[in-house]
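# nightly structure sweep
# worker-07 picked up a monomer target from the shared queue
# config: single-sequence mode, recycle default, output format = structure tokens
# input follows
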Amino acid sequence: MFDSFAAARPERLDRPAYHAEFYRIFSSGIRHMNKLERGQHFKERGFASWEAFAAGEWDAAIRLIEDRRDSYAEQVREARRLGVLQRRPRVVEFPLTPYLQWELYVLRVRTQVGDPIRILDARTIAAIEQRHPVPEVVVLGDVAMFEVKYDADGNADGVNRFTDPALIAETSAGFDTLYARAEEYDAFFAREVAPLPAPATTP
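# output follows
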């Protein structure tokens, strides 16, 4: 699974070019958007909640997530208006990293406004990841696929862009398999995240 993806030759786009291309395709009449997230530690500078988290202010970080609720709800409404089915499995490792513990609170708000996010325990896909981790990827219909890249410090650093129809179809089939295995968000959050104390360390 995902073997052809690992061997493909992409086109590199910086963040502004990626954002422009993403929204152009997203609003062009595609039927679905699939997003697979694998990394366990990122930096989200400029997001007030993440900045508070990074400063060790856990209560403020959780509270400030609410500032994004309306924009998240608008994203869901826009996808529905355009007829785009969105699916998003989030791979998690245990024990949860401090970043992921924080992000799962962000994703809870997203699910509350209708974003269809599921959780995929990395232990359940160990056989799939024997040769390489599953990709950090966004698939827009059968038109384009983007591998999201990060620098060594966890900052977003553009994307690799793929347009080969066979590669997109193969990756989408792998995505379907992972999404079917993933757990519904609310049950996972209640069992694994809500009982946790504030993380002892931050970025």
